[in-house]
Amino acid sequence: MTKLHEDDIALAGEYVLGLLDAASSAMVEARMATDSSFAAEIEAWRLRLHPMLGGEETPSAHIWRVIESALPQPTDQDVGAGKLLFWRSLTGISVSAAAILGILLLQRPDSGPIPAPQAPLIAALGSETGSASLTASYDASTGRMIVTPVSLETGNLYPELWIIPADGTARSLGIVGSKSATAIIVPADLRQYLGSGGTLAITPEPEGGAPGGKATGPVIASGKIATL
Fold this sequence. Notes:
The protein is an alpha+beta fold. It has helices at about 5-15, 20-30, 35-50, 60-70, 80-90, 95-105; strands at about 120-125, 135-140, 145-150, 160-165, 170-175, 180-185, 200-205, 220-225, 225. The strands form two sheets. Strands 6-3-2-1-9 form a five-stranded antiparallel sheet. Strands 5-4-7-8 form a four-stranded antiparallel sheet, with no helix packed on it.
């Protein structure tokens, strides 16, 4: 994967936080279809921010004291035009988001440092014609996969997701949405196949999924699984 510039990483974060206007969001989504590194960064931001955006929780006074004591004092170098615009835009995030971010970054005095999470597995699925494009991220610690369509059209049929490991046998992970992200809890007996190097694929299938677990439609999008 190509190394992203700091501005690209910030842009990915703004997109996931919903801070971009419609035109900018459309540009980001178009880039995701052709830039696998940028698409992977989007998925990484979704994983990082998922706990922060999941609900409201009032932080304890202790948490705020730890956060305030750990934050460095601002300098002139910290307030460049680009950074200032980005961090000002974050002021609309809920109090729970700031508290959870502090928990992620700081050491808890009662239980030591928070263990580093396992690196997520990601995949950018596409077609040779560019007519179908999706991104997928998988958290091995929870068995949760998030599949996000960028462009996907299956007519009257339904997009079914498959994992194809080294043995070449496709195993269904279920039907996914063609217009919005789908969260899948991968069955325990299939998690062994979701390793770096396998392939995710999409085929159009009838309602309810492929009969007998055997694909009936052609592969319209596919992509290798890799470690982020």
